[in-house]
Amino acid sequence: MTTTDVLGSAGGLGPGRALRPRSKVLPEHARSHNRSLVLQTLYRSGQRSRADLARETGLTRVTVSDLVAELLAEGLVVELGQRESARPGKPAVLLDINRTAHQIVGVDLSDHDRFRGAVMDLDGELLAEAEVPLEDGDGEPATGEAALAKVRALVQQLVGAATAPILGVGVGSPGVVDLSGTILTAPNLGWTDVRLQDELHRLTGLPVVVANDANAAVLAEHSYGGATGDMMLIRVGHGIGAGLIIAGTLVYGSHFAAGEIGQVMVGTDLGLDATYTREQVLEHWLSVPQLRRGIREAEAAGRDATPVLREAGQRLGIALAPVVGALNLSELVLSGPTDLLDGPLAEATIHTLRNRTMAENHADLAVRMTTQGQDIVLRGAAVLVLSGQLGVS
Hints:
15 strands; alpha/beta; globular; disordered N terminus
């Protein structure tokens, strides 16, 4: 079985691939690209006639008619009836993506205390939800094979809850994930070289896409959150990760570790010559378990917990300042528990960024919370499947 067998032949999210096709391409790539172009136009705009599609995509009417006939036969597109028109002649027939023909299973493995999943429609709306606690029988978070068993059980439960044919399964996982859906390393879950995409495909017989959870989250913000321009999304959960979209393309990095800022040492507490230590990385201050622990300890001692949040925000600003300076980003989005991130932590991040970058180059930099809430990775998992199977996002 190849990666193409698992992802499907319509698209995928390889390095350098634009998330949304917008124009014609060379003849040898034309068929699948133009198919995605028609589907993308309908997915984002809806209710278009064949003539509308030809005009908006730049394809010929003959090509559009041929593609639409194919998509109608596959049940991916439906005719909605004739457009009301006062003009003479036969009214045009409107088309749309068949938004009820398929459902998507999405799984989020990024929470520090549970695995979450949902059955969604093609617009990323949650239809049914399920979760399993990460805690194992001994009261400690499950890792290794025990954690994998929980993923398998959750996916099987969700597949059984679907009420329409499943287009695919999307999974957002912490750690470094390559394009074959192999989790190269996820330290908090005790995983190394786990071929999760292949395993879930064998388990379900369905197309499966596994990606880094922060990459899934940034795709959700891009597709459903109205994000514009170059952006970076910082995902705060069991660990810390970031997703980057530059020039309309998801950034992976040479070893699929782009955005792994959680393991970067921040500050000079131990001096400039100090060697790498996990006790000085961003995750030590910013992960959800660390923040919760720091707040509990402060409250138990009768102290204000705000300094815990402010220091975490300062450390995040230190980590992000070189990235903002190098890439001249227009937007930073925070994703994670709102009670932790929104307020003193975000304010400290902004303040630190302003102090550590040249203000005139980044005057319009926006730092905000995600618009997608706690479901951002689940909805990003839906985008993974939509892009992999239909070439749309």
